Amino acid sequence: MSNELRDRCLESVYQESLRIALVQAGLKTAAEVAIPVYFRGEVVRNFRADLVVNDCVLLELKAVSAFDGAHEGQLPHSFRATSLEVGLLLNFGPRAQFKRFILENDKKKIRVGPRESVVDALRNREWI
Question: What is the pTM of this model?
Answer without folding.
Answer: 0.73
